[in-house]
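subagent[fold] <- orchestrator: predict structure for attached chain, return tokens only, no commentary.
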Amino acid sequence: MYKIYTLSDPSTLEIRYVGVTTRSLNERLSQHKYDAKHKPTRHVLKWINSLPKDPIIELLDIAEYETWELYEQYWISQLRQWGIKLTNHSLGGKGVIKGVREKSVKSKCKKIEVYDFQGKYITTYSSITEAALNLNILKTSICNALHTKREYSPLIKNMRFLYEGSKRKPFILYRAEKDNVCIVSSNIPDLCSKIKVCRSHVSYKLKKGDIITHSNYVIYKDIVYSYSKE
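subagent[fold] -> orchestrator:
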């Protein structure tokens, strides 16, 4: 759960900052106070140091992993439209949550190649930001896909993301063949929906092997090691 919170002036009760955290509000306030005391480089931290008492922290909204950036950006924009003078420098959505971030300025500038779920090349974007804006996907989601520690390249909206020229990660495809008809999918639930067979039974059987027979279909679990730009 991602908590959108505000910091307010204890004297005037005026909201001066909007942030997001996965920790308790008391823990987040303690971190703000520590940063203000030891490394007051940001505007919000200098503001905290100027207060006679600790700022008031309050819950504003709750978001999920996929939407916290949009929620934070919305509230910063909305409060500013209402004439509230916030200490936020950015428009929001740039916080570091559970270590999720773009690893360096250099990595932000790398070109991003986009492939479909079968590994066929779609297009190239000049940066993570450009890809996120054009595809309506959160930057943090693309970053997670690019920097995944998983063995296989993950999917986002049936697309795979790679840095241009990077080492290709393998990925899995599922195939069902029957009467010279071949149906391909990137995941078992989607495949089972298309061929109208029991998902749990297929999942159980595929754990024991890469090829099974079910409801007159021959179902394959393929590990694909190459991406195509054709």
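orchestrator: received. Logging for downstream: The CA atoms of residues 29 and 192 lie 48 Å apart. The radius of gyration is 23 Å.
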